[in-house]
């Protein structure tokens, strides 16, 4: 079968879906998308309940993989509890995420669960994420005269202070998306972790600090592409997933939706 397509079984038949539309490197086995996915999987090893919000394809894949490895309870924005779709859809609101789910919940029930302390980790995204871990999903520029209007924060303004931890992710690492201070504070709260195509951050002493650097990335590149004077804690090198780990990721996500949102992806050895 051509490399830009993937086959899966559904309703007793063979379905062929296009892969190239959201896979910038269809011929490549391992990219930073796989490195980021596995970094999140490793971090989920001791987590009991994790909630993945809208527009979170890479964390969704990581949660599905972690579910198979360690049994973490996966709450999807689609309303599914531990859904087991035959293949990951590109949209995190897709009804296919309800396939195989042990239960279904509503948005109010998700808020109630978080308020009761029942969500250990919530995955969030931000058009801007600053050094304090604050999110902006509202406007770029001033409120009175914005240069860009974003989609809004959804429930993050409430949920970020309710969940035990919030983990953020980005498919780009640039000063405009990681400024020293966001243009508008859409949400602030318990954001403790951020992963980007260059590195992993943890919030320490009120500021995001680099704790792990991805393969082939230098400190100088991180400094150049971060909007504040980034500090480095005790540094690790983010591991490249081995062949078995990559096979598990690919089995869960044959459509490679984990690679969506990246402009380019280089091969990693």
Automatic annotation (TrEMBL):
The lineage of its organism: Archaea, Methanobacteriati, Methanobacteriota, Stenosarchaea group, Halobacteria. Signal peptide: none annotated. It comes from Salinadaptatus halalkaliphilus. InterPro entries: CoA_trans_fam_I, NagB/RpiA_transferase-like. Pfam families: CoA_trans. PANTHER family: ACETATE COA-TRANSFERASE YDIF, CHOLESTEROL RING-CLEAVING HYDROLASE IPDB SUBUNIT. It comes from the Archaea. This is CoA-transferase. GO terms for molecular function: CoA-transferase activity.
